[in-house]
Write a structure and sequence with these properties.
With 164 residues, this protein is of the alpha+beta class. The protein is built from 4 helices and 8 strands. The protein has one domain: Nuclear Transport Factor 2, Chain: A. It is globular, with a radius of gyration of 18 Å. 27% of the residues are buried.
């Protein structure tokens, strides 16, 4: 008995793939490249332009949910005010239809968290993208805030499982 499954296909054209300098130099979907470039150049309006009109940007680590282009621009501005050298390094990314995902390193040296003596952080992050008509309808960033705070010497409730 054959168990062939039909995989839904999108009527939209295939995403353009470009090579973004990454840890692996693998092709990165254009929308992910544009998203990373907006973060790396602190281009709040550029990031907002990638979103649908009522697009949603969520950051689970900081429990932030920003709606609409103005809200998304505000989120990038707020982040860059607190972490002026905010940087995204894409490790890997892919897109299938109207879904995309990226694994990346979030790094920077905060100035907006008080005097941290110039300490920096670098944490692994994952972002999930839901696209509509070539724009980001929703993007969700996930990374470990406790790990970020631990690297900065801030209280973090950083718990490590006991080793056997």
């Amino acid at each position: 008995m054959s168990t062939q499954h039909d995989v839904p296909t999108s009527a939209a054209p295939a995403p353009t793939r470009v090579t973004l300098p990454t840890a692996t130099d693998r092709p990165v979907p254009l929308i992910v490249q544009q998203w990373a470039e907006a973060w790396n150049t602190a281009d709040a309006r550029g990031l907002a332009a990638l979103m649908t009109e009522q697009g949603v940007y969520q950051d689970f680590a900081f429990q932030a949910r920003n709606v609409g282009r103005d809200g998304v621009a505000h989120w990038l501005d707020l982040t860059v005010r607190s972490i002026p050298d905010t940087h995204v390094t894409v490790l890997d990314a892919f897109q299938v239809g109207d879904r995309a995902a990226a694994q990346w390193i979030f790094s920077g040296t905060p100035t907006g968290f008080g005097d941290l003596g110039g300490r920096s952080f670098s944490v692994l992050a994952t972002s999930l993208f839901h696209l509509r008509d070539g724009k980001i309808q929703e993007v969700t960033d996930m990374y470990n805030r406790a790990d970020l705070f631990h690297q900065l010497g801030l209280p973090s409730d950083h718990w490590v499982a006991p080793q056997p």
